[in-house]
Here is the input.
Amino acid sequence: MTLRLHDTLTRQEEPFAPRDPERVRMYVCGPTVYDLAHVGNARPVVVFDVLFRLLRHTYGEGKVVYVRNVTDIDDKINAAAKANGEPIRALTDRTLAAYHADMDALGALRPTHEPRATEFVAPMIAMIGRLIAAGNAYEADGHVLFSVPSFSAYGQLSRRNRDEMIAGARVDVAPYKRDPADFVLWKPSPEGIPGWDSPWGRGRPGWHIECSAMSETLLGETFDLHGGGLDLIFPHHENEIAQSVCAHGGLRTETHFARHWVHNGFVMVNGEKMSKSLGNFWTVRELLEEGIPGEAIRLALLKTHYRQPLDLTRERIAEAKADLDRFYGALRRAPGRKGGTLDAGFVAALEDDLNTPAAIDLHLKRRLAAVNEGEAGAADALLAMGAILGLLQQDPEAWFKGDGDASIDALVDARVAARKARNFAEADRIRKLLAEQGIVLEDTPQGTLWKRAG
RNA sequence: GGCGCGGUGGCCGAGUGGCUAGGCACCGGACUGCAAAUCCGUUUAUCCCGGUUCGAUUCCGGGCCGCGCCUCCA
Here is the structure.
């Protein structure tokens, strides 16, 4: 069995075949660092983290190179910094640190490389120069624009043609464009806005060029997989293909540039896309501050197939938390060890276009039942499968107790003594006392366990 | 207007041309000093209309509904 992934280019499942199994390369579009990430932003992070873990499992930990860029040149950043009266670098550093903290809480591994746009301006300028020299771009009115008619394959990813796009355009076409579909590679920066010196004057790059320059620098002209949210297909990824392919000398083979294009569906709220502009978003940070474990958010995301829309509700998150309570409860009573064997069906489910719901509901749950029935090795298998999904790796005691509390332990001990003396009135009094503090007790043959409810 | 995605039982959510996952919730039972946890059992479905087929939830066509992209967007 080999990994099969739905490819946006062909709109079909395709077998995943890296060019070089010794160096599997993936690129995923990362955050624009001007504000906290919401759950919609977190979905691709979690989805591609599972893919990253699966590929590391298949090809070896050191054999997978995962690049996720950080966009720190952007007009929204400029506006936010101005509004805060804060230097741009301070804003982007602070936002990136928050992003890291939040994504860490979701159990996402750090990518191999996290290039920042500000560190790649020179490669971007060089690439733009090549595009001009090749006749794929032109300078006009202080801007450099990509000439869409110069690239015959334009539109193949999003399956739209130029004429349709122009007919349906909802924005005015800038007067300096030769063709209405042309897009900006470089634009002038007025005073007070970040700018870099270039052959076309002081300016800043357009949105799309950073990914082309970064992927080329860090992964080479061709790599194995390019991912991101559904909303990036057009125009971002379409334009990226045009820039990269033309900068690399034009279309040579069908699999030029990225070989597989993988896009995740949206997080929805009440049937609508979660987005900053609609204002219907929950930041990861606010959920964490409410006391929801990051792992519960992660599981809530993974219980839906990555290409399906996911309607996120409090109930969903609570259900994921309850699932984890069961898993950790079982692991608490029967601790597993690292190095367990993965169930074959589990890997097969993930290799079937990352079918995480099947992997969880079928295989993880089956092993959970086996752990509860005392089957040898079941907890080990559960831990091993959890590691591929980025779940169940915490200490079960810590999951239930948080930082712990000596006063609770003392009360629990007092109740154990009362029970031993068959003083059930006192035992129940203590249990009630603890329940008022949100502590739930569990008497087991091995002793009394406690956990925080909710 | 153009392009695209989806509609499964109370809820979530997969697979599959016939043998119809799984989870959650609910209900009943076992276990327990009482609980908790766990285990056992029960229940409910494939948007509508045609077509192909011996047979469709699954394939094809049409319709209805919801959503998305075409502007920044994960």
Remarks:
- The mean pLDDT of chain A is 92.
- The first strand of chain A starts at residue 4 and ends at 7.
- The CA atoms of residues 159 and 278 of chain A lie 27 Å apart.
- Chain A has 16 helices and 15 strands.
